[in-house]
Amino acid sequence: MDIFERLRQNPGPLGQFADYGEGYYVFPQLKGEIGPVMEFQGKKVITWSINNYLGLANHPEVRKVDADAAAEYGMAYPMGARAMSGQTDFHAQLEDELAEFVQKEAAYLMNFGYQGMLSTIDALVSKNDVIVYDAECHACIVDGVRLHFGKRFIFQHNNIESFEKIIKRARTLADKQGGGVLVITEGVFGMTGKQGILKEICDLKDTYNFRLLVDDAHGFGTLGKTGAGAGEEQGCQDKIDIYFSTFAKSMAGFGAFIAGDKEIIRILKYNLRSQIFAKSLTMPMVIGGLKRLELLRSKPELKDKLWHNVNKIQKGLVERGFDIGGSNTCVTPIVLNGSPIEATLLAKEMREEYGIFVSVVVYPVIPKGMIIFRIIPTAAHEDEHIEYTLNSFAEIRGKLEGGYYKRKAEELNIDFIQY
């Protein structure tokens, strides 16, 4: 069969929705300044789908520094990869300040988080090493693990009994092969909002002799006394061997970094293929990153406002009988029962009738029969946004449970491939 013909016949779990949902449910366009209220399809909507945790995307100091850096250096500088011609004092300064912030000896900047995680995993392990990772790790971790030529094991999500059972097997196999063991998990799981069981895993390091890589994209800037992340929150930051985070969440930008022991970070930066063979992070983002990090350190009221909003909306949802899946972070899932068609109809009504834009997740990302609406509170939201959203969800849940969307779905008669 021709490759293109196969693609036409089987467009994939998400591709099958293209005709029905593109531009609305998939690849939607939010317009206007990044904030709690934006424009969608010509209407103002309260936005709960942007990871602008601390509200820095449109902070006046951040906007000024970004603009000044772009005016002085342009968007191209520095040209080339870091290893060839893309190094600057500002890159080194941001690395030093990030390392201090997350309580590590050294850090290394990356141009993008997804590719950075792929290369970090690839650079850390050899074919004789064994990888152990959580079943619900982010796609960047899963894809990084797929690059590994050696053995890999999955442990049940946040299940320490499963982890210990798997780590014993991994340690035995690694010893037999003359390799080591790399454990990978997340500080915060972005779909459920649950923190990874970092402390429990770290408590087993001495027993089973493994190294720990933690993706803390959602924890950086939001968790811990200083904002250093889930490891600080759980009192085990010093036990994390390689700390990874992106700038796409609390830092409201792009890029990423890894941090750890100085010697190991130095070795990694000479072996991270996605950085060696790619352009250096641009100067506006580096200088802008320094300003963002300064605000993380100097304005704790931003994190305080974020958690005021998180606590208010999560408490309101629980009081109204909603299942938020045990989230103990900013990520707030609303778990409902229904089909993908019901979910899309519900999301459409939320946007068009209630003026609320929230991401919806259905099968095959989650099990059949489940609907998850993932709310991302930020420091920019106000109490009135929260109250209105709580009341709207209460109304729309009643319609869902009463079969309204099921009846509407039957009228549409749209078939989806069952993957």
From TrEMBL:
The enzyme's E.C. designation: 2.3.1.29
Known cofactor(s): pyridoxal 5'-phosphate
InterPro entries tied to this protein: Aminotrans_II_pyridoxalP_BS, Aminotransferase_I/II_large, AON_synthase_class-II, PyrdxlP-dep_Trfase, PyrdxlP-dep_Trfase_major, PyrdxlP-dep_Trfase_small
Keywords: Acyltransferase, Pyridoxal phosphate, Transferase
Enzyme class: transferase
Domain Aminotransferase class I/classII large: 43-392
Any matching Pfam family: Aminotran_1_2
Gene3D superfamilies: Aspartate Aminotransferase, domain 1 (3.90.1150.10), Type I PLP-dependent aspartate aminotransferase-like (Major domain) (3.40.640.10)
GO molecular function annotations of the record: glycine C-acetyltransferase activity; pyridoxal phosphate binding
Annotated metabolic or biological route of this protein: Lipid metabolism
Family: Belongs to the class-II pyridoxal-phosphate-dependent aminotransferase family.
Protein name: Glycine C-acetyltransferase
